[in-house]
UniProtKB/TrEMBL annotation:
This is NIPA like domain containing 3. Residues 362-383 are annotated as: Disordered. It comes from the Eukaryota. The keyword Repeat does not apply. The chain crosses the membrane at residues 15-35, 56-76, 82-102, 114-133, 153-175, 182-201, 221-240, 252-275, 281-301. Belongs to the NIPA family. SUPFAM superfamilies: MFS general substrate transporter, Multidrug resistance efflux transporter EmrE. GO terms for molecular function: magnesium ion transmembrane transporter activity. The keyword Membrane applies. It is a multi-pass membrane protein. Keywords: Membrane, Transmembrane, Transmembrane helix.
Length: 383
């Protein structure tokens, strides 16, 4: 639907948005690995410095900012239905980086047996990403403030928001009052908030890009409304996701959260921005197939044996795309003190090196024991 003759994004815009999303997710994964390396390297030295005083950690932080910025801008160029599922690229990159730094020596047969499903997950994620990008929405509306308001007051959006609010309130009631700490309930709360986040992120990103291009959009009240909703929903979303990681297995949280958050993000884009209104049944079916293949690939990757610690999840909420990414920043891995970086022994979670044990322990004086003599032990010589 084209409101007020609004310009429709071209194939080139879709390509730019897709590449920005892939680049941003890869950069975020690399940045988290660099920051973890900073913690590990600091734990292996005798220096008692805070991690934020190291150049390595700050370089990782800069990479994070650049990656999140790329993710944020990607929503202004590509449809939400394409950008949101590409969060699987971040999961894929994190797992591959884990393999690179793992350096575990196994026989080829044992390695294939232990990690065969992981590599199958890699193939599924890559293939699913190709399908959903190829058969996703070909064009999307370049959002201006007036069009966002018209979308917002349309009856499909109002009905969708009403159903979402009712569902959210019911789930929150069972979670808070009935103490129903089931994983599905908590992650459904995260996904419902995430759908609001991605809607507002796309609106804010689109208006900012149009403003930079010369069409001022920041003086409209809808921009302030969308910005406030974006920040608020992201904060509450991070809180619920943190609770899920505390109460349940992190690898299970990672896979289920990606599936639910992506599903509701795509659904919100289809209802609010009418991204599939001009698509035929074949393209929609192939897009759904690609999404399902991505879901299966992420599930296989995140269910890696904990012994290997290839994928060590915890909460990292990407403000730029609204879909929480599960990465690991702890427990911190103690390095090999031979100088090589290893995902080996687990230590404390705060990045502080373990307290050194004394090397020379004083032996307590031994007195004469009659039983020693009777058992044939040699007598202890006294000074």
């Amino acid at each position: 639907m084209d409101y007020n003759g609004a310009e429709i994004g071209s194939y080139t815009d879709n390509l730019i948005g897709t590449l920005l999303a892939i680049f941003g997710n890869v950069l975020v994964s690399i940045s988290l690995t660099v920051q973890k390396y900073s913690h590990v390297k600091l734990a292996g030295t005798k220096e008692h410095r805070a991690f934020y005083r190291t150049k390595t950690w700050w370089s990782g932080f800069i990479f994070t900012c650049l990656g999140e910025l790329a993710n944020f801008v990607s929503y202004a160029f590509a449809p939400l239905a394409i950008v949101a599922p590409l969060n699987a690229v971040s999961v894929l990159t994190s797992s591959i980086l884990g393999f690179i730094f793992l350096r575990e020596r196994l026989k080829p047969k044992d390695f294939a047996k232990q990690y065969g499903l992981v590599f199958l997950g890699y193939i599924l994620v890559i293939g699913g990403a190709y399908l959903l990008v190829s058969f996703g929405p070909n064009s999307h509306e370049k959002l201006i403030a007036a069009n966002i308001v018209k979308h917002l007051v349309g009856w499909p959006v109002l009905l969708y928001l009403l159903l979402e609010i009712i569902t959210f309130c019911l789930l929150l009631y069972f979670y808070k009052r009935r103490k129903a700490n089931y994983l599905v309930i908590i992650l459904l709360l995260v996904a419902l908030l995430g759908s609001v986040t991605v809607l507002t992120v796309k609106a804010v990103s689109g208006m900012l890009v149009l403003t930079i291009e010369g069409t001022m959009q920041l003086n409209y009240p809808i921009f302030s409304v969308m910005f406030v909703c974006m920040v608020a929903s992201a904060i509450f979303q991070a809180g619920f996701l943190s609770q899920a990681c505390k109460l349940h297995d992190s690898s299970l949280v990672a896979s289920v959260n990606y599936i639910l958050s992506t599903f509701f993000a795509v659904l919100a884009g289809a209802v609010f921005y009418l991204e599939f209104s001009n698509e035929d049944i074949l393209h929609i079916c192939m897009f759904l197939l690609g999404s399902a293949v991505c879901f299966l690939g992420v599930f296989l990757i995140t269910k890696t044996k904990k012994k290997a610690r290839i994928f060590e999840p915890c909460v990292t909420l990407n403000m730029s795309n609204g879909v929480p990414t599960i990465h690991d920043k702890g427990p911190v891995i103690q390095p090999d003190y031979s100088g090589s970086f290893s995902y080996g022994t687990l230590v404390n979670n705060n990045g502080v090196a373990p307290a050194p044990l004394p090397v020379h322990l004083e032996t307590p004086p031994l007195g004469p024991r009659t039983s020693d003599a009777s058992q044939g032990h040699p007598a202890i010589k006294r000074d």
